[in-house]
Specification:
The protein is of the alpha+beta class. The chain is built from three helices and eight strands.
Length: 190
Amino acid sequence: MTHDPFQYYRRSLRQRKYSFSRGGIHFVTICTHNRECMLGEVVESEMRLNEYGTIAREEWLHTEVARPNVLIDEFIIMPNHIHAIIVLTGGLLGEKRRGTTSSYGSAAGRPEAQVPDSIDGVMQQFRRNTTRRINSMRSTPGALVWQDDQYERAIRNAYTLERLRGHIADNPATWDRDENNPASRHAPTD
Protein backbone atom coordinates (compact mmCIF):
# COMPACT_ATOMS: atom_id res chain seq x y z
CA MET A 1 0.00 0.00 0.00
CA THR A 2 1.45 3.37 -0.98
CA HIS A 3 1.79 6.16 1.55
CA ASP A 4 -0.39 9.19 0.90
CA PRO A 5 1.03 12.15 2.92
CA PHE A 6 -2.23 14.09 2.57
CA GLN A 7 -4.56 11.33 3.75
CA TYR A 8 -4.08 12.18 7.42
CA TYR A 9 -3.37 15.88 7.03
CA ARG A 10 -4.66 17.93 9.92
CA ARG A 11 -4.81 21.71 9.82
CA SER A 12 -2.67 23.32 12.49
CA LEU A 13 -4.56 25.18 15.18
CA ARG A 14 -1.71 27.65 15.68
CA GLN A 15 -1.68 31.18 14.38
CA ARG A 16 0.62 31.43 11.40
CA LYS A 17 3.85 33.41 11.62
CA TYR A 18 3.65 33.79 15.41
CA SER A 19 6.12 32.40 17.92
CA PHE A 20 4.27 31.10 20.96
CA SER A 21 7.54 30.97 22.91
CA ARG A 22 7.65 34.76 22.97
CA GLY A 23 6.41 36.66 25.95
CA GLY A 24 2.90 38.00 25.83
CA ILE A 25 -0.71 37.14 26.56
CA HIS A 26 -2.24 34.01 25.06
CA PHE A 27 -5.69 32.41 24.94
CA VAL A 28 -5.63 28.61 25.11
CA THR A 29 -8.30 25.93 24.86
CA ILE A 30 -7.53 22.30 25.69
CA CYS A 31 -10.07 19.47 25.37
CA THR A 32 -10.30 16.10 27.04
CA HIS A 33 -9.70 12.98 24.97
CA ASN A 34 -12.70 12.40 22.68
CA ARG A 35 -14.29 15.44 24.38
CA GLU A 36 -15.41 13.17 27.21
CA CYS A 37 -17.28 15.14 29.89
CA MET A 38 -15.13 13.98 32.77
CA LEU A 39 -14.28 17.16 34.72
CA GLY A 40 -17.70 17.93 36.18
CA GLU A 41 -21.05 19.25 35.03
CA VAL A 42 -22.86 22.50 34.42
CA VAL A 43 -25.85 22.92 36.73
CA GLU A 44 -28.03 26.04 36.47
CA SER A 45 -25.35 27.90 34.47
CA GLU A 46 -22.68 27.12 37.08
CA MET A 47 -19.74 24.77 36.62
CA ARG A 48 -19.45 22.15 39.35
CA LEU A 49 -16.13 20.36 39.34
CA ASN A 50 -15.90 16.70 40.23
CA GLU A 51 -12.77 15.04 41.63
CA TYR A 52 -11.04 15.06 38.21
CA GLY A 53 -11.97 18.69 37.62
CA THR A 54 -10.57 19.54 41.04
CA ILE A 55 -7.28 17.89 40.06
CA ALA A 56 -7.24 19.92 36.84
CA ARG A 57 -7.87 23.13 38.82
CA GLU A 58 -5.11 22.34 41.34
CA GLU A 59 -2.60 21.57 38.59
CA TRP A 60 -3.60 24.66 36.60
CA LEU A 61 -3.07 26.92 39.62
CA HIS A 62 0.22 25.14 40.34
CA THR A 63 1.50 26.32 36.94
CA GLU A 64 2.43 29.71 38.42
CA VAL A 65 4.38 28.02 41.21
CA ALA A 66 6.22 25.63 38.87
CA ARG A 67 6.95 28.30 36.27
CA PRO A 68 7.87 31.74 37.68
CA ASN A 69 7.70 33.31 34.21
CA VAL A 70 4.06 32.30 33.73
CA LEU A 71 0.99 34.02 35.15
CA ILE A 72 -2.51 32.59 35.07
CA ASP A 73 -5.20 35.11 34.16
CA GLU A 74 -8.89 34.25 33.70
CA PHE A 75 -9.72 30.55 33.20
CA ILE A 76 -12.65 28.17 33.35
CA ILE A 77 -12.72 24.41 33.63
CA MET A 78 -15.73 23.03 31.77
CA PRO A 79 -16.98 19.41 31.65
CA ASN A 80 -14.67 18.52 28.73
CA HIS A 81 -12.38 21.48 28.11
CA ILE A 82 -10.50 24.36 29.67
CA HIS A 83 -10.34 27.93 28.39
CA ALA A 84 -7.53 30.03 29.82
CA ILE A 85 -5.57 33.20 29.40
CA ILE A 86 -1.87 32.73 30.09
CA VAL A 87 0.70 35.51 30.44
CA LEU A 88 4.31 34.68 29.60
CA THR A 89 6.30 37.31 31.49
CA GLY A 90 9.88 36.22 30.91
CA GLY A 91 11.97 34.78 28.14
CA LEU A 92 10.80 37.37 25.65
CA LEU A 93 13.35 36.09 23.16
CA GLY A 94 12.52 32.44 23.73
CA GLU A 95 15.04 32.08 26.56
CA LYS A 96 15.09 28.87 28.53
CA ARG A 97 15.39 28.24 32.23
CA ARG A 98 16.24 25.13 34.18
CA GLY A 99 13.45 22.61 34.52
CA THR A 100 12.95 20.44 37.55
CA THR A 101 15.21 17.43 37.95
CA SER A 102 13.48 14.20 37.10
CA SER A 103 14.03 10.94 38.94
CA TYR A 104 16.70 9.94 36.40
CA GLY A 105 18.26 13.42 36.41
CA SER A 106 21.85 14.38 37.09
CA ALA A 107 22.42 11.46 39.47
CA ALA A 108 22.49 9.16 36.43
CA GLY A 109 24.91 11.46 34.63
CA ARG A 110 22.27 13.06 32.42
CA PRO A 111 21.98 16.85 32.39
CA GLU A 112 18.87 18.49 33.72
CA ALA A 113 16.29 19.13 31.01
CA GLN A 114 15.98 22.60 29.54
CA VAL A 115 12.31 23.49 29.61
CA PRO A 116 11.20 26.52 27.60
CA ASP A 117 8.62 28.83 29.09
CA SER A 118 6.31 28.48 26.14
CA ILE A 119 2.64 27.64 25.70
CA ASP A 120 3.62 24.14 24.55
CA GLY A 121 5.85 23.66 27.60
CA VAL A 122 3.13 24.85 29.97
CA MET A 123 0.47 22.68 28.36
CA GLN A 124 2.69 19.57 28.20
CA GLN A 125 3.47 19.85 31.90
CA PHE A 126 -0.21 20.39 32.73
CA ARG A 127 -1.30 17.40 30.60
CA ARG A 128 1.37 15.15 32.08
CA ASN A 129 0.62 16.05 35.71
CA THR A 130 -3.18 15.88 35.45
CA THR A 131 -3.09 12.66 33.43
CA ARG A 132 -0.84 11.00 36.00
CA ARG A 133 -3.04 12.04 38.92
CA ILE A 134 -6.38 11.28 37.24
CA ASN A 135 -5.19 7.89 35.99
CA SER A 136 -3.89 7.07 39.45
CA MET A 137 -7.29 7.90 40.93
CA ARG A 138 -9.14 5.89 38.25
CA SER A 139 -6.62 3.03 38.29
CA THR A 140 -6.19 3.41 34.52
CA PRO A 141 -2.43 3.74 33.94
CA GLY A 142 -1.60 4.89 30.44
CA ALA A 143 -5.16 5.97 29.57
CA LEU A 144 -5.51 9.16 27.55
CA VAL A 145 -7.07 12.12 29.36
CA TRP A 146 -6.36 15.03 26.98
CA GLN A 147 -6.26 15.60 23.25
CA ASP A 148 -2.72 15.95 21.92
CA ASP A 149 -3.11 19.50 20.68
CA GLN A 150 -4.60 22.73 21.93
CA TYR A 151 -6.02 25.85 20.35
CA GLU A 152 -3.70 28.82 20.90
CA ARG A 153 -4.17 32.46 20.05
CA ALA A 154 -1.96 35.43 20.85
CA ILE A 155 -3.87 38.33 22.39
CA ARG A 156 -2.56 41.53 20.89
CA ASN A 157 -4.86 44.27 22.28
CA ALA A 158 -6.97 45.21 25.30
CA TYR A 159 -10.27 44.85 23.43
CA THR A 160 -9.55 41.22 22.53
CA LEU A 161 -8.33 40.50 26.06
CA GLU A 162 -11.54 41.83 27.63
CA ARG A 163 -13.72 40.04 25.05
CA LEU A 164 -11.98 36.70 25.79
CA ARG A 165 -12.21 37.25 29.56
CA GLY A 166 -15.96 37.75 29.08
CA HIS A 167 -16.19 34.60 26.95
CA ILE A 168 -14.45 32.60 29.67
CA ALA A 169 -16.66 34.01 32.44
CA ASP A 170 -19.85 33.38 30.42
CA ASN A 171 -18.92 29.86 29.27
CA PRO A 172 -21.02 27.95 31.85
CA ALA A 173 -24.09 30.07 31.01
CA THR A 174 -23.73 29.22 27.31
CA TRP A 175 -22.90 25.52 27.77
CA ASP A 176 -26.16 24.34 26.20
CA ARG A 177 -25.06 25.81 22.84
CA ASP A 178 -21.27 25.42 23.23
CA GLU A 179 -19.58 23.66 20.31
CA ASN A 180 -17.61 21.56 22.85
CA ASN A 181 -20.82 20.27 24.45
CA PRO A 182 -21.55 16.83 22.96
CA ALA A 183 -25.28 17.36 23.59
CA SER A 184 -25.35 20.66 21.69
CA ARG A 185 -26.65 20.82 18.15
CA HIS A 186 -23.57 23.00 17.46
CA ALA A 187 -21.15 20.21 18.44
CA PRO A 188 -18.91 19.00 15.60
CA THR A 189 -19.63 15.52 14.28
CA ASP A 190 -16.62 13.31 13.66
